[in-house]
Amino acid sequence: MTSTVPNAVQHADERQPPITMFGPDFPYAYDDFLAHPAGLGQIPATGHGTEVAVIGGGLSGIVAAYELMKMGLKPVVYEADQIGGRLRTVGFDGCDPSLTAEMGAMRFPPSSTALQHYIDLVGLETRPFPNPLAEATPSTVVDLKGESHYATTVDDLPQVYRDVMHAWNACLEEGADFSDMNRAMRERDVPRIREIWSKLVEKLDNQTFYGFLCDSESFKSFRHREIFGQVGFGTGGWDTDFPNSILEILRVVYTEADDHHRGIVGGSQQLPLRLWDREPQKIVHWPYGTSLASLHVNGEPRPAVTRLHRTAGNGITVTDANGDIRTYQAAIFTAQSWMLLSKIACDDSLFPIDHWTAIERTHYMESSKLFVPVDRPFWLDKDEETGRDVMSMTLTDRMTRGTYLLDDGPDKPAVICLSYTWCDDSLKWLPLSANERMEVMLKSLGEIYPKVDIRKHVIGNPVTVSWENEPYFMGAFKANLPGHYRYQRRLFTHFMQDRLPADKRGVFLAGDDISWTAGWAEGAVQTALNAVWGVMHQLGGTTDPTNPGPGDVYDDIAPVELPED
Question: Which of 105, 451, 468, 469 has the fewest CB atoms within 10 Å, i.e. is most exposed?
Fold first, then answer.
């Protein structure tokens, strides 16, 4: 059991391989594509060494650049801030360097199988992440309306929580064919996946998450909906997602994206950084020992892009913050979409007008975190009166919302994520400094744990982030509102550029907000691979017949197309 309100169906056979985040919108097996010995494709020898702009050095950009380099192309990476994007790992000033905080992505499901390919490739280790009631979590406290409940499994919670769990299970079965879809995805039964999903997209595109709950006989109780919103399933409360499209939530539960999470030992930012320095064993055109770093002056990406425009011959001309101007046959844009509306001067001719509309309608969610370093995992101490852990992973309706306890052994310094919040809960923190935030958080937690002096264990200054206030992000991750399916489809399918006028080709969109699984690193990887296929195709390259790429099979598994009129 990994959550207070788990997914509807427990696996009948846990020995089965994990489901993958390859659908249901575009059920393509990216993990098989990556694992195939034939590789991702090849470019004609006459195209070797061709420069391709990659704008954005987050995970999507670095994966795309790495794979383009292996094909014999020369990726030119532009990055406004630092390699990693929202895979951002920071330390604490004056503390042991092993103490780190994950300001962005910090937990990854086994269903992220394409992501796992790269984690394994660069030799990173993962370990279970201490989500609410996960096996790796010693204990969890749920604190709602001033009443706290201590639990090691869901059975330790009051009956009402189990009632909510059963209501969610029934809601998914009644309204979303959960068992049938889960089975089809686990078996990679593409026709059945498409059959189920096509009906649901047509039926539910205009429905909010909250409306979906209200329409269910199982969730007629407001109290149950309230508890579900505050406690949720998998990673905690989901009421901040209530206004979003229910299709967004179904993608998460179908692909088991909120289950069995693992964290990357030493921090997630190591993944793009190691790919940047990695020297592939199999590489075309470039000498052995070539890396992305070695293809860039002083091993650093080029600076921020300030202008994108089209020039004669359908060239893509890029101006950077140093005033350098370069023109490319192809470019991959992986930064957050709103950058095209604000930070970068763009020609309207870069994209068809319908794609510009989709970019403008992108809905980003806010998110804030604050971490503090502590001298040891004191939360494992036992209360003399109750025998319980003195502090636990905490879900609450107080300002902190979610508190996570992260340690590397009983005798080593540790880290507390005092608060992890989204949307309105995140905006409440925005005007406050890191220390002001910490004071409010310690007050809230002191009301839950009156016998615990957290402050006396703090050994360094807090670190914090509000992604909506980050100038190159302006939000944490995308989450579609009702009616946004058509916009998302336009963005995801943009890599199929044979369908576009010749003067609208050459710039390829990628990144997790272009994917169907926005907010998940897997989506960043998948769209990077789509863009790599698109660039390869544009430059006259092909995949091996035994390993067709996402564009080769597109017509067989294209996302459902809803009418525009």
Answer: 451
